[in-house]
Every structure is written in structure tokens, then in C-alpha cells.
Write a structure and sequence with these properties.
The structure is a single chain. This protein is an alpha+beta fold and 98 residues long. It has one domain: YggU-like (Conserved Hypothetical Protein Mth637, Chain: A, 2-Layer Sandwich). It is built from 2 helices and 6 strands. Strands 1, 2, 3, 4, 5 and 6 form a 6-stranded mixed β-sheet that branches. It is globular.
Length: 98
């Protein structure tokens, strides 16, 4: 499952597409939330962009978004503190698939 609750908030499995024209959710693909990012996958720029994008989209500080697995991969697992499962599910579900 791409999005699941844990004791501190929500854990999301994502697949990142770097160097996209804009930052956006692009639906669920292969059991992961697809996130388009404008940043390149160089020197952690895409990781920083992912954390900033998720924090802004969910109204949380960037410190509440932690990449727990996959820092050097396009497939990542991200923990987001202080949000509920319904908040993240609604946000991801509101974006049109690409």
C-alpha cells in the first residue's frame, strides 16, 4: 500500500520523477505515489525538493518530512509527522494521473 498510518503520522511510498517541468502529484503507479519534481537528482537536490514539496502541500514544517528509505533511489519511503491518513490520501487523490 502506498500510504499508511503509523504512530507519528503517515508513511508514504513514493517514486520520484526528477527534472519535470513542475512539482506535482501524478497519481499512484506500481503501488507508489508518483511525484514529479523540478529538481535534478544531483547532490541531494531531488530529496530536498521532495521534502519541501510534501511539507508545503500538507502544511507542515520541512522537519516533519523524513526520507526513511531510498535516499539514492527514485523509489523512496517518506515519513510525515503530524498529519492523518485522510489528509494525505485526499491530497494525492485530488491530482490527475499522468
Amino acid at each position: 500500500m502506498a500510504i499508511r498510518a503509523d504512530e507519528n503520522g503517515v508513511v508514504v511510498d513514493v517514486v520520484v520523477v526528477p527534472r519535470a517541468s513542475k512539482c506535482a502529484f501524478a497519481g499512484v503507479h506500481d503501488g507508489r505515489v508518483k511525484v514529479m519534481l523540478h529538481a535534478p537528482p544531483v547532490d541531494g537536490e531531488a530529496n530536498d525538493a521532495l521534502r519541501a514539496f510534501l511539507a508545503k502541500a500538507l502544511g507542515r514544517p520541512k522537519r516533519d518530512v523524513v526520507i526513511v528509505r531510498g535516499e539514492k533511489s527514485r523509489k523512496k519511503t517518506v515519513a510525515i509527522g503530524g498529519v492523518g491518513l485522510a489528509d494525505v490520501t485526499a491530497l494525492v487523490g485530488s491530482s490527475p494521473p499522468r
